[in-house]
Amino acid sequence: MKNILKVIIIAPLIGAGGAVVLSCDKAVTEPIKEAYIPTKLDENAGTWKPYILTSSSEVVVSAPKAITDAVYLKELDSLKNKILPVLTPTNKDAIAYWGAGAVYRWNEIARELAARYNVPPASNAEGKYPVPDAANPLADPKFPFANPPYTARALAYLSVAQYDALVSTWNYKFKYNRKAPSKNDATISALLPVSDLPSYPSEDAVVAAASYTILVAMFPGEVPYLDAKLAEAKNARVWAGTNVPSDITAGDALGKAVGAKVMAKAKVDGMSAANNQTLVAGQIEAAKSRGIKDTWVSQEAPVRPPMLPNYGAVTTWNFDKATLTKIRPVMPYVVGSAEWQKEFGELEKINKSQTREQARIANYWADGAGSYTPPGHWSREAANLCHDNKFSEVATARAMALVSTALMDAGIACWDTKYYYYTPRPQQFGLKTSVGLPNFPSYTSGHSTFSAAAATVLGSIFPSKVTEMNDKAKEASNSRVYGLIHFRVDCEMGLVHGAKIGEFAIARGKTDGSGY
Fold it and tell me: Is the whole model's pTM more than 0.85, yes or no?
C-alpha cells in the first residue's frame, strides 16, 4: 500500500519534516513524494536554451578543489565523522522532505504562499477597498493579493529562474565533473539515492537560492519563513551526505545570481501598471463602440473596482503583442440575441436543477479565494507528473517553465480579452453562484483559458496523458457553467484561446535543444 499524506489545498504550511499544519478541513489525499534516481541525467542540459541568460556560462562558477586536495578531503572527513553520525530525527525528516526534489518542493512552497495571500481586500469604513502596499506587506490588507494573474506570474518567474539556473548548473557540473561524496569515499553512506550526476555545484542549492530570490520579491512579508526554508534546503543536502559544503556554496552563489537576473526582467514587465483604474472608463466606452450593449458591473456592495484592468498589457513570454492581438477571440453574443438567450436558458436550467455531479465539479475546480488559484492547480498537476515520471531536476524545471510561462501568457491574453469586450456575468441577470463571484468581466473564462493552455503543454510533454489532460481542462471549463459563473461561449472560446497559447510554449520547447 502506498504511503499517504494529507495535503491542504487552502493556505497550508509544511514543516521541516513534511508535517502539514492544518488550517481547515479542505484537504486532499495523495501519495507521499519520495526521492528517486532520475531515469535520465540529461548530460547535455548545459547546452539547452535558457529564457533570460544569454548562455549557460553567463554567470561564472570557479572550478572546485580536486578530489585529492586537502581542503576537499577535510570536507569528506567532516561529513563522515562529524555530521552524519550525529543527525537528529528532525534532520532526517528534513532530508526526506527535500529528497522529493528541489524544484518540486519550491514550487509547492510557492503555491502554499499563493493560497495564503489569495485574499481579496475588504472594504473599509469609508466604503473603499484599500490597495495592498508592497512597502508594508503585513499591513491590512496584506501584500500581495495573490489572485490568479498574480499567482501565474509568480510561478512563471519562479520556474524560469529555476530552469535557467539549472541549465547553467548542468554546464558546470559536467565541465568540472566532481562526483558526489560517496562516489569519492566509499565509506560515506548517503541517506538519499545517489546517481552519477556530478555534485558541484549543488543543484539543490542552486534551486533553493534562485527560488528564494524570486519568492522574497513576490511575497515580501514571508522573509523569515523563506529564510528558514532556504537554510533547511541547503543543510539537508549535507545532512544527507550527498553534498559537501563547497558544493552548496557554489550552488548558492549561482542561484542568487540567476535569480537576480530574472527579477530584473520582472521589474520591467508592466505589472506595476496592471491595476491602473484610470483606464476603466475608456475600456467601457471602447467595448460599447464594438457593439457590446450591456457591460460588466461589479455586483458587490460597496462596488469593488475591477481587478487588474491593465494586466493584458504585461509582457508575455512565448509570443509578442502583435500575436496577442491576432489570437484574441472574436466578439461574443450580445445580451438579448437568440444565442445569448439560449445560453442564459442553459444557466437557468442548471440553477433550478443542478445535479450532484455538476455541483461536485463546480466546487472541485472553484480554486477561489484562499486557494492557490487555477494556475496553482495546474502547477501541481505538472509537478506531480514530472515526479511520477522520474524526471531529472533540470528536466522538471524545463517542464515547469513551459507550463508556467504558458499559464502567465494565458492570464495576460485572457485579461486582454476580458477588458477589450467588458461583457457582463450571469449575476447581472439575477442568477446566484455558490463558488465565489469574480470581480472582472466575463468573456472569456479564465479557468478555461488557463486550463487549456496548461493541458496542451502537458499533453505535449507527456503524450500518454493527452486525453486525460484535455478531459481535465474540459471539466475545469464546464465547472464555470455548472457554477453559474460563465456563459457557455465564455468557456468554449476560452478553451480555444488557451490551446493556441499552449502551442506557443510547445513551439518554444521544440527549439530549446533538449530533445524532449
Answer: yes
